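Justification of computing resources. Each target in the renewal requires a structure prediction run like the one illustrated here; the chain below, 304 residues long, is used simply to show the kind of job we budget for.
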Amino acid sequence: MPVYSMTGYASATSQARAEGENSAAPASSVSVEIRSVNGRFLDLSMRMPEELRGLEPALRELVAGSVKRGKLELRINTQRESDSSWPQPQPEQLNRLARLESTVQTWLPKAAPLSVHEALQWCKSGGGASEKLDEATLEAARACVAGLLEARRREGEKLVTVLLERVARLRELAAEAEPLVPAVVARQQQRFIERWHEALTATNAQQTISEEALRERALNEAAAFAIRIDVAEEVARLRAHLEEIGRLLKKGGELGKRLDFLIQELLREANTLGSKAAALEMTNISVEMKVAIEQMREQVQNVE
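Resulting structure tokens:
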């Protein structure tokens, strides 16, 4: 299943021609365009002519059936093709126009009768011939939603590539961090012993405390220090979160919220690792981890 981005754009146009025998009646075109950006939930706004307002529930159902998250704007425009030629009035058009005129004059006796020019204008505009704008609009909307999904899929592929690169980099940093702890502990242990000897020499305590006891005390201090700076748990949890992110990206589907949670957990582990850092190398690794995680966070904000 592909991973979809919440960013995308698509447009589609459909033609609608008036029903009836009047082939000279100009056709109408319906254009639909959808813009999509990231959002926590599905937020759909529509701009359309009032004559198509009745289609809003169907359009919302159409979009909600394909898109789960994002802030979307759907625009619909209609346009009648210009036609300077006069149409050939059809009998059914003239009959209906005559009935309408008779009804109006029955209720409004002082109403002026229609002129030939007015009758031709009415026929030219497609009066009485119901254009299938609804069908054309839904057809264009379906094509537009399909185009939007394709655009979001392409953008999602790019996001997956970037995220997997960051995951690989974080794994490299975790591998660099693990062997640093024993080396830091060994250096600190030697430093403890040296300072302990200096303190004992300054206070003449070596005369009352054996060398073995001094060394044991220094080793105990070094062991306590090793416990405080041990990052094995943090690195293990970080690797587990990275494995889960890789699994989700491979599986696809609606991942945005779960990925966002995992990014927070990654940042928590990187912060803990930095707080335990007892060497400049470990601090640098922690900083690089945070940079990579923040880059992932920016990309995850666009994942559906």
